[in-house]
Design brief:
By secondary structure, the protein is mainly α. It contains 11 helices and no strands.
Amino acid sequence: MNVPAAIELGKGLNSKAEKTREDLLRAGIKLFSEQGYEATSTRQIESSAGVQRNLMSYHFGSKDRFWKACMSSLKDDVNRMLEPNVIQSKDVEPRTRIQFLIRHYIRASATRPELSRILFDEGRKQGWRLEWLVTEFSKEFFAAVQTLFEDGRKNAVIPDIAFPHFYYILVGGAALFSMAAECEQLTGKSAFHPSMIEAHADTLARLLTHEK
């Protein structure tokens, strides 16, 4: 085999391996968010991804490491959605900025509801998965929201409530998308309809801020 042909073969193999990894991550995120960690088996993940047996172990090593890779992928997706909004709103006056970021947080939660489902599930009990989520995701987000909150309090655009309550009211706003099936049965409306997402985002933004 000549050198150019070998290079092309290598590219093809790398592309196939990357697709396999992405298929596994997509399947894992879906199953972990629907069934939880314990109820989701390696075989289920590989079957859902449409890949051969033992490829999850080949690419990720263990179920624990695969779960962490799924969570990292989710975190990266959410960060990619939110970071441009943080930059865009940097010099905006506090009330408008806080409402803008709350709305985009709700939109991101609607786009990737799997993250809040897993956080809500793992947040019910102590264990290595919760410790990992807190260290790798929640602490960073908690600190960012606290900075936003303190700026809002300083400028008198946030109600007189303690930060933990502000934080969990905000995070709890994502519950609409985690409980989308119940929402549709109770209200006859899809939680993921654009008008429902925008109304929910606007409601939360107004509830958590006020005029000077």
